[in-house]
Amino acid sequence: GAVVSQHPSWVICKSGTSVKIECRSLDFQATTMFWYRQFPKQSLMLMATSNEGSKATYEQGVEKDKFLINHASLTLSTLTVTSAHPEDSSFYICSALDWGLEPYEQYFGPGTRLTVT
Amino acid sequence: AQKITQTQPGMFVQEKEAVTLDCTYDTSDPSYGLFWYKQPSSGEMIFLIYQGSYDQQNATEGRYSLNFQKARKSANLVISASQLGDSAMYFCAMREGGFGNEKLTFGTGTRLTIIP
Question: What's the whole-number average pLDDT of chain A?
């Protein structure tokens, strides 16, 4: 199957700083990527849909100014958590959509664990 | 109403036995897809199986099969001959609408523990 990487796999930052998370599709072009957040023992919640070359579409309740998404190329999307606070500590997972193969499944990255102190 | 409901927060199953993980869904869209993912403790999401709403046959992938009952809006995952490595969280997810609407809605998950 297709491979999606995320970097970093874990990060600890101080409150008030910004953190950038990268999501790359390694062996296919992904015009559409998704960003999810998962709190401990909870399900995945979609934060936003990232389309290459256009603005991201955010889900209701997600602050677009706080979670900046940039999908600058067909293989890279970035999520920047700006002015991070302890409540932003979570597991962030990206996925990339392979339009070339039905059922157009999403391939998930390994996730990034963010801890804000 | 919840779009995806998984009523079993946790299950314990003896190794080599079959296990059924329940999933019911709610949609008024005639075109939809149902996915099952496995999430081990490492956190990665592993795709297991897919069932389209128009598929006539139940999906199967190795030891995984999907018991799709459209009228009941259920899409239960069946794992045959369970193994210790099957211990993980399992999520049912739905994609509504046709081509161009690829967002997934996930259920709350079931934690499966295989007992040796």
Answer: 92
**Which residues partner with B10 through β-bridges?**
B111
Residues of chain B with pLDDT below 70 are 1, 98-101
- Mutation for testing the A interface, residue in B94, B102, B108 having most A CBs under 10 Å: B102
Q: How far apart are CA A89 and CA A73, in angstroms?
A: 27
* Alpha-carbon gap: B106 to the closest alpha carbon of chain A (Å): 6
Where residue A79 falls (left for φ over 0; alpha for ψ -120 to 50; beta otherwise) is beta
Q: Which residues of A touch B66 (CB under 8 A)?
A: none
Of the partner residues B43, B46, B102, the one whose CB lies closest to the CB of residue A91: B43
How many Å lie between the alpha carbon of A115 and the closest alpha carbon of chain B? 15
pLDDT of residue B98: 67
Q: Please give the structure tokens belonging to residue B8.
A: 């079993």
The answer to whether residues B3 and B26 touch, using CB atoms and an 8 Å cutoff, is: yes
Q: Are A114 and A11 in contact (CB under 8 A)?
A: yes
Which residue is listed with tokens 């603005």? A55
Which residue out of B5, B45, B50, B89 would a mutagenesis test of the A interface target, given it has the greatest number of A Cβ atoms within 10 Å?
A: B45
How would DSSP label each residue in A13-48? E-TT--EEEEEEESSS--SEEEEEEE-TTS-EEEEE
Name the pLDDT band for A87 (thresholds 50, 70, 90). Answer: very high
What gap in Å lies between CA B112 and CA B43, rounded to an integer? 15
**C-alpha to C-alpha distance for A106 and A104, rounded to whole angstroms:** 7
